[in-house]
Design goal:
With about 425 residues, this protein is of the alpha/beta class. The chain is built from 15 helices and 16 strands. The protein is about 40% helix and about 25% strand. The strands form 2 sheets. Strands 6, 7, 8, 9, 10, 11, 12, 13, 14, 15 and 16 form an 11-stranded mixed beta sheet that branches. Bound molecules: L-homoserine (HSE). L-homoserine binds next to helix 8.
Length: about 425
């Protein structure tokens, strides 16, 4: 017998609009393939022009959240408002009424999933958030169901399309950061205030969610080491290429006997690595499991329909599964006290310096690295730039610790030999 499921959509922005259209346009298809009639009962948005543009019938336009949560014909509430304030308030109201929630909101899930899941459990309803990470790429379902057989030891992700677009533009056209950002804004990838994306906050929220699921332990977003791309110099992208590297903003999660390591920062990867060919606004997540070995999921991390694909797939899952599956880790505000987070993590490094062009400088610079316990793999002197007195030196190091590298950089800057222009971590 066919099942009827009523849904409400809160917020008709880019993702909400794509979700509305997908649900309406595919209603017959879902009826045929899933034996479930998913009906958009109600839509809540103050923007009447947008409601009209999408052709939402008058009888489906809700006047308030109170009206939505009081409606017995609504089983699932879709939240596509974004942010934490109003979105969280509305989601809590829906869960308290026993309505399952599907959300695309990474900030809210990263910061508040412990509170929301508690309410969902208490009211025997589901909380689904596939669309919160990597848009249309089914990474959450993969972690929850597809790779549960494994200890996941490592996760490397390009999880932000805006920054990937900017870095691709800088790499392919030699554009500087500001020019590439302006182009990303013109195309609608970057927002007017791009801070959330370019300073790595968006990737940090996503990494906190994904690593909590991959490593079966709460990874609060405050534990993620975060650096964005606004200080990236296209000169380094160019030089990196000569060394066989491609620069990406990576979300890195590692889980070993030593502890959990989570960080978001610009990273050089070998140009032969599968993630190096993930370009423009595309996203990808590369996972290593002890049984499955390496797998990579690739696709569109943003956009109306790719994100709607994840939202609506969650709606179908909620509509067709009577048993509810919650997080496979203890979803509390903080991590368990026995989980060790590594802040002095290890990495190989690319260092670009500008030094005086005098006898003995190379020996002194490499001597400082040696005294700091850092082993050098490669040291290359580049041509002096026109009008520049000092000469660029590029150093690639073996793996060393973050603190040792900070110490070496401080010592070089204080030595009078020259200065460190950039330091970029290298992931082999
Ligand atoms: N702003 C995000 C990005 C998409 O640029 O990838 C939504 O998570």
């Amino acid at each position: 017998m066919k099942k009827r499921v009523g849904v409400a959509i809160l917020g008709l922005g880019v993702v909400g609009g794509g979700t509305y259209k997908t649900l309406v346009d595919h209603r017959e298809f879902y009826l045929k393939t899933q034996n479930v009639d998913i009906v958009v009962e109600s839509v809540l948005d103050k923007n009447t022009a947008r409601l009209k543009e999408l052709g939402v019938p008058d009888e489906c336009i809700a006047k308030s959240i109170a009206e939505v949560v009081a409606n017995p014909a609504i089983d699932i509430v879709i939240e596509t408002i974004g942010g934490v304030g109003v979105a969280k308030e509305f989601v809590m109201m829906a869960l308290k009424e026993g309505k399952s929630v599907v959300t695309a909101n990474k900030e809210m899930i990263s910061k508040c999933s412990h509170e929301l899941e508690r309410i969902a459990r208490r009211n025997a309803c589901g909380l689904y958030y596939e669309a919160s990470c990597v848009g249309g790429v089914p990474i959450i379902r993969t972690l929850l169901d597809g790779v549960q057989a494994n200890h996941i030891t490592e996760m490397l992700g390009i999880v932000n399309g805006t920054t990937n677009y900017i870095l691709t533009k800088m790499a392919q056209e030699g554009a500087d950061y500001q020019t590439a950002l302006k182009e990303a804004q013109r195309l609608g990838y970057a927002e007017f205030d791009p801070t959330n994306d370019v300073e790595g906050f968006d990737s940090t929220y996503k990494l906190s969610i994904l690593s909590s699921m991959a490593f079966h332990t709460k990874v609060p977003y405050t534990k993620v080491h975060r650096e964005g791309i606004s200080a990236v110099d296209s000169k380094d992208i160019e030089i990196g290429r000569e060394f066989g590297y491609t620069l990406k903003l990576l979300a890195i999660g590692k889980n070993s006997d030593k502890g959990v390591e989570v960080r978001v920062h610009p990273t050089f990867i070998p140009s032969s690595h599968p993630l190096a060919s993930v370009n423009d606004s595309f996203n990808a997540v590369y996972l290593r499991g002890d049984a499955v070995d390496d797998i990579m999921l690739y696709g569109r991390g943003a956009g109306a329909f790719p994100t709607a694909s994840a939202v609506v797939s969650d709606v179908i899952y909620a509509a067709t599964h009577s048993e509810i599956k919650y997080s496979t880790f203890k979803n509390t505000a903080t991590a368990d006290s026995d989980v060790k987070f590594i802040s002095d993590f290890e990495s190989a490094y690319y260092v670009r310096l500008l030094v005086d062009d005098k006898a003995g400088v190379l020996a002194k610079v490499s001597g400082i690295f040696g005294k700091c316990g850092i082993s050098i793999v490669k040291l290359t002197q580049k041509e002096k730039a026109a009008g520049e007195e000092r000469v660029p030196l590029i150093i690639i190091t073996h793996k060393t610790s973050e603190n040792k590298m900070k110490n070496a950089v401080a010592k070089i800057n204080a030595s009078g030999l020259g200065c460190v222009e950039s330091v970029i971590r290298v992931e082999a």
